[in-house]
Predict the 3D structure of the following.
Amino acid sequence: MPDTTRPLAEGPHAVIRPYTYADGPEFTARARESRELHSPWLFPPTTDKAYQAYAGALIEGRGRVGFLVCERDGERGGERGRGRGATGGAIAGFVNINNIVEGAFLCGALGYGAFAHAAGRGLMSEGVGLVTRYAFDVLKLHRLEINVQPGNTASIALARRCGYRLEGFSPDFLHIDGAWRDHERWALTATE
């Protein structure tokens, strides 16, 4: 059985690792603390039952994979999540690769979110960069897409900082918060 507590990749300030079921209490507490930051763009699970289903789809499902972005030990961010050794410190956010298509396409769609205590500290830029490299180097994907609602300027800035390019506009692309929402398409290929 693989070690799910060991980082998959490390940067100067952040590490990425897989979700575990044991992360539920910290993840949901961070999600509740971050409701204002996430609304109206994102709705991560805020209860243990919802987290178990959400994480289960990433841990055991096919066609998607999830990563927690954690602060490196010694970084600030609160006491919760400390003392984990190689796993890093507090959970700063998450990056999921959804809708992975194999065969000739080799593509996935990134979804991500920072938690409030980590917002504006560069941890998510580092985390998205680590996941992007992991997707190209380890998962052998050729293309990654990020679909962002046009008004979500923080998410668009993150996509741009991580080297993704604007490809186009998709009207009524995803059903979020009870309505079909327009999205900008940002993409990056392994050869770029």
Observations:
- The chain has a mean pLDDT of 90.
